[in-house]
Design brief:
Pfam family, one: ADK
Strand content: 5-15%
Bound molecules: adenosine-5'-triphosphate, the ligand O=c1ccn([C@@H]2O[C@H](COP(=O)(O)O)[C@@H](O)[C@H]2O)c(=O)[nH]1, magnesium ion
Main location: cytoplasm
Protein name: UMP-CMP kinase
CATH superfamily: P-loop containing nucleotide triphosphate hydrolases
InterPro entries: Adenylat/UMP-CMP_kin, Adenylat_kinase_CS, P-loop_NTPase, UMP_CMP_kinase
Organism: Asparagus officinalis
Shape: globular
Strand order of the largest sheet: 2-3-1-4-5
CATH architecture: 3-Layer(aba) Sandwich
CATH topology: Rossmann fold
Amino acid sequence: MGTVTDASKDATGIAFIDKKVTVVFVLGGPGSGKGTQCANIVEHFGFTHLSAGDLLRAEIKSGSENGTMIQNMIKEGKIVPSEVTIKLLQKAILDTANDKFLIDGFPRNEENRAAFENVTKIEPEFVLFFECSEEEMERRLLNRNQGRDDDNIETIRKRFKVFMESSVPVVEYYNSKGKVRKIDAARPIDEVFDAVKGIFSQFSKKAT
Ligand SMILES: Nc1ncnc2c1ncn2[C@@H]1O[C@H](COP(=O)(O)OP(=O)(O)OP(=O)(O)O)[C@@H](O)[C@H]1O
Ligand SMILES: O=c1ccn([C@@H]2O[C@H](COP(=O)(O)O)[C@@H](O)[C@H]2O)c(=O)[nH]1
Ligand SMILES: [Mg+2]
């Protein structure tokens, strides 16, 4: 793991990431199964799972000065400003001894993507992309029952629109660089994971 010194801190007080890390972005529409499959990848391949949405929800709970703004953005299905999300991701990476990260649900738009690359200098190893119909994703989200403020039909529709308009272009960008690994995520959970396992075969299995 790299060391972090005061000299390597940026203007916001967050240290630059000066350790060598492997990052896989996990993208897909709302409810496509990103979190579910990330838990399986953590279990089998020893990655650390960083869900940008979970980090933002934890920020709301922590009573941070950005909490109300983040809460309002999530209720509207909007994308939180890049600097807020990137700061949380940077901190999580630096605070974790692991060197392999799944970044779930980020980057959500082109601005997120460019800002993350500029600030962290990290290029993803590849992008795991879960493909699923809106009909199936809507069914899953309405049955999730985790008490999320954004799992209601009104916000779900807004999230689908933001995904199509802002997040799909990010997938297209990485596709043009040959970095996208597409998965048919409409299948049952274990079948989806069988496909995921094939893609992660380059990483050694976690010792049990
Ligand atoms: N392949 C699958 N088949 C059926 N149900 C699934 C499948 N994968 C996940 N689910 C269920 O669908 C719901 C959404 O899954 P999950 O939370 O993993 O999605 P997500 O992509 O992380 O969503 P979000 O973008 O909203 O965070 C959960 O209740 C989960 O148990
Ligand atoms: O990079 C991100 C990630 C998430 N958001 C906001 O959070 C919600 C929920 O995200 P999930 O990935 O579904 O947990 C999302 O709709 C955005 O409002 C964000 O702004 N930036
Ligand atoms: Mg999720």
